[in-house]
Amino acid sequence: MKPIPSVPLKMQTFAEEEMGQRALAFFELMKQRHSTRDFADKPVPLEVIMRCLETAGRAPSGANQQPWHFVVVTDPEIKHKIRLAAEEEERAFYAGRASEEWLEALAPLGTDADKSFIDRAGCLIVIFAQSYGLTEDGSRVKHYYVQESVGIATGFLIAALHNAGLACLTHTPSPMGFLSEILQRPKNERAYINLVVGYPAEDAQVPQHALDKKDLTEFVTVL
Ligand code: IYR
Predict the structure, then answer these.
(1) Given ligand 1 and candidates 106, 117, 118, 178, which is best to mutate, with the most ligand atoms within 8 Å of its CB?
(2) Among 27, 29, 46, 55, which is least packed, fewest CB within 10 Å?
(3) What is the pLDDT of residues 85-106, one digit of tens each?
């Protein structure tokens, strides 16, 4: 490594037994996380959302460029506008834009073009990926590993929300251009996910299919 300005890494480490306990406790927490479409009609505390976003902003990213932008929408009118625009795309999706194979893969989830949960949930966090950066004078800055970086930040956010006791749904209508329009985002940003966030309804359901997780042995190879 070339000499660069650096500071000491400050992170806790643990004896093996405690590592095991902590790893298990985090697994037990994350094991309970499921996407749901059943939200309580109840506002979410904005400070909690902000703290979770602060966590998302600590994700690693290509060349530390942090090529993301998050728009928090609690305004019922803007949420409703997004719901209506999303439902229009979704109707086209379910009526023929999606392949038979895709619709077959979705069948166990029971999804359709109804996105009324967007009105009910406390907020939307619309995540944008910055395909390139823009300097003050309007010139472009190349960004690296944008999809990976925004995906990792989204993962941090989802884990942080779940840890705080908020449910979410990764909603990805296709195409998502209407989100840039409604939220008036600049041309260097593409909508990545419409994350629907809120308290789960008291009788919130998850599809049985969602419990069908691969066993560790099916998705890990140790050499
Ligand atoms: N965007 C549609 C379809 C959909 C696609 C996938 I991949 C999902 O995991 C779930 C739904 C919708 O939201 O209904």
Answers:
(1) 106
(2) 27
(3) 999 999 999 999 999 999 999 9
Both structure tokens of 1: 């490594």
Buried b (16+ CB within 10 A) or exposed e, 79-116: bebbbebbbebbeebeeeebeeeeeeeeeeeebeeebe
**Nearest-CA neighbor of 174 among 193, 196, 160, 159?**
193
Mean pLDDT across the stretch 45-71?
A: 98
pLDDT surpassing 90 at residue 28? yes
What is the assigned CATH class of domain 36-201?
A: alpha beta
Place of tokens 């949420």: 79
Residue 111 alpha carbon to ligand 1 centre in Å: 7
- What is the DSSP pairing of strand 189-198 with strand 123-130? antiparallel
For 63, the token pair is 């060349």
Tell me which residue of 58, 213, 204 sits closest to 121, measured CA to CA: 204
Structure confidence at residue 1 (pLDDT): 85
- In the chain, where the domains are located: 36-201
Say how many Å lie between the CA of residue 173 and the centre of ligand 1. Answer: 7
Q: pLDDT tens, 154-206? A: 999 999 999 999 999 999 999 999 999 999 999 999 999 999 999 999 999 99
| 121 close to 49: Cβ distance less than 8 angstroms | no
